[in-house]
Target: FAD-binding oxidoreductase
Amino acid sequence: MSLSTTSLQDFLTHCRGVVGDEFVVCDDAGMAPYLTDWRGRFTGKAAAVLRPASVEQVRLLVAACAQWRVPLVPQGGRTGLVLGSVPDASGDAVVLSLARLNRIRAVDPVNRTITVDAGCILQQVQEAAAAEGCLFPLSLAAEGSCSIGGNLSTNAGGTAVLRYGNTRELCLGLEVVTPQGQLWDGLRGLRKDNTGYDLRDLYIGAEGTLGVITGAVLKLYPQPKACITALAALPTPEHALRLLTLMQDRCGASLTGFELMSGFCLALVAQHFPQLPKPFAAQHGQYVLLELSSNESEPHAVALLENAIGAALEQAIIDDAVVASSIAQSAGLWQLREHIPLAQAAAGKNIKHDISLPVSRIAQFIATTEPLLQQAFPGCQLVCFGHLGDGNLHFNVAPPDGIGHEAFLANQAAVNRVVHDSVVTFGGSISAEHGIGALKRDELAHYKSAVELDLMRAIKAALDPLGIMNPGKIL
Amino acid sequence: MSLSTTSLQDFLTHCRGVVGDEFVVCDDAGMAPYLTDWRGRFTGKAAAVLRPASVEQVRLLVAACAQWRVPLVPQGGRTGLVLGSVPDASGDAVVLSLARLNRIRAVDPVNRTITVDAGCILQQVQEAAAAEGCLFPLSLAAEGSCSIGGNLSTNAGGTAVLRYGNTRELCLGLEVVTPQGQLWDGLRGLRKDNTGYDLRDLYIGAEGTLGVITGAVLKLYPQPKACITALAALPTPEHALRLLTLMQDRCGASLTGFELMSGFCLALVAQHFPQLPKPFAAQHGQYVLLELSSNESEPHAVALLENAIGAALEQAIIDDAVVASSIAQSAGLWQLREHIPLAQAAAGKNIKHDISLPVSRIAQFIATTEPLLQQAFPGCQLVCFGHLGDGNLHFNVAPPDGIGHEAFLANQAAVNRVVHDSVVTFGGSISAEHGIGALKRDELAHYKSAVELDLMRAIKAALDPLGIMNPGKIL
Model:
């Protein structure tokens, strides 16, 4: 689908007329920051990077792409983990950066909505909501860099899904430029709207393959009055599941976080970050980081949490627990969780999986899959942690002691096959919150049914008949 | 698209081979119960009523419809309000009743999911969840008759949306027979799954025009330990909005119901149902029915509600309030709300609107639209009530005193135009929770943008190229 040099120059001249010369970037140095993925594993090529500043400019640029048949790769904060927002190696595509569309358009504290440009950084959205006394609950490691358009396009998850849902559940309305360069204004701030097909949720999670999200109406919540954190120590994942049921029964929607961490994970953190707190003297098999929020008061949250933990101790579900008594202590407990990926990186590269399972099957999944891995790769080390309340595990596999991390990466495809086969056996998903992008495209094709793939292809062909939207991603 | 008599007989013979003679109903008396809508406004015709008992039978019947080019109308409990589940007057279509697919397939209290056949009655699902100590929160007037497949196909709302969302938010996975007679197994019980396009939400709310939903995995919640009801009296809808903000800030997710009722509504109820409670001696402009649920205890719920009501009285947001002190008193307060439609029916037919608005604009919408109606139809009477917490009003218009209800119905199109034009001006929706069906198809075409209609048509053509799925509905 390469253009002739003359046609490409015509196209770029047209684009310069839309956004101005300086925002059509064609030199290698200027384009470089837009071509490499977040984890630095892949660098693509592009014919140009286009940097529109308004929805109308996006529309005109996409219309030009359609007219000249130029593939385009929408790009937000470029923090994705599956190569969804960088171009391939062909150099045929242009990158369409949404970074300059970064206005908070409106905050409505009574409707509890915020209307934003797609290029707004997640943290900027959180802060604009907080300034009006509201909570925008989406929260994830990259929140200082990722854009809300990217969060929507990947249906991002994070640490508050248990209470507030994924990005999909936080979005009421969307504005999208179609692959034909038309504007769909679906910017509705409505809790109920049953007027035809759910286009919104089709664009959410489509990773830019069906259109370009340019704006969104997002849900806000009341700011909780208090937020309390605790760390529980327990023997097995099975006990963690029992704790989850107990906490949900007693605390309902006040339970806002429930993160599982294996003993191996925390030992790895202690090894690489010895300055972090060590809440327990003894070693335990598993740990759960709990967070409770209250719209009432801090004493309410503390009492609720302490009573629940008391019951869990009494029922021998947990062996021990600490409740943070200050914001600093709470932050310290969260740091343990957040440093797991950093400790892994410090130890060396490993083979990562972002999987989900029915919550009730997680313990059995771990108990079944770890021996399968040991059988195939004797001595390999499992770094298993994640959002247990959502059934989402980061199920990472590190080399046996004495085997180099880089060398072990040669087993990636074989390790993936063991883990993903087991995931599918247990009714799970091979991509819980990261999406498919280019990285997991072959895995998707391997595991999805022919019926489902055909349905997806029919939708793609119907909405993007020229096939110019983020080619090579998902399908 | 009429078949020749010979072809039709071949088709029906084939269907009898699939489901057995007795479940291919062709006689007028046998078909009659399947052809008239719930409110008795329309009776269609059908070539036959097909009554499969298994997913595989559904698949074979739909494949036969595709082969013989016979249009089909999927039907659940037939309680819809927009003529979405009855055939048109042509007699070309067959009705595909899902009523015999009524098994609860599985309940998983740890994963908090229930897997059901599409033909299960909503109440049956609620009861199966309760038997395992869980709550399936979808609740609406027709729950004793409506089927979960119909709830999904119309994305039903109801009285618990404020806390738990619409049916869409309560569904994790779907099983669908495509218009080609293929089975899409999307029965996943996962909170997170980012593996390609969101087919699930495309089928939800599609009113049977894209495929036949045969099964679903639904979300369950912990059963609240207590549920408290109160009725607040206040002067205006503006005050009701202030009360909503106050309640949400103080109670968060414990606020599970927030229903607005105008003084005129309750006067109508008192007139037609004098035996029902009259909680206040004085007349008030507006009333709000509040419901609070607690996962902790009844004293917790009572204290939370009484403190919030105390604050609302202190801030002069409400004039008066009663808190139910028993289950019987609570039921009595809900009866006031539930008897509004019955009182309306007793008074005579009126012109109904099921609309939604940004919550923050509701007071201004009512204040603007009522004078527009009075100007166009002097003396007309507004019966305004609904799920204020969701921005959803049932905004019904009754004739002026002295004008017959039937005669006033002649103004239906003109009244709709006034109300719906105003809804659109305020950024609202002309169908909040009932859907489009055949009844609102022309209104949809009138109000939706050409871009949105084209996107919907493209999806319809891609997934149902023969156009056999529930023709004449939505598009």
About this structure: Chain A has three domains: 5-97, 104-222, 226-347. The mean pLDDT of chain A is 96. The radius of gyration of chain A is 23 Å. Chain A touches chain B through 94 residues (CB under 8 Å).
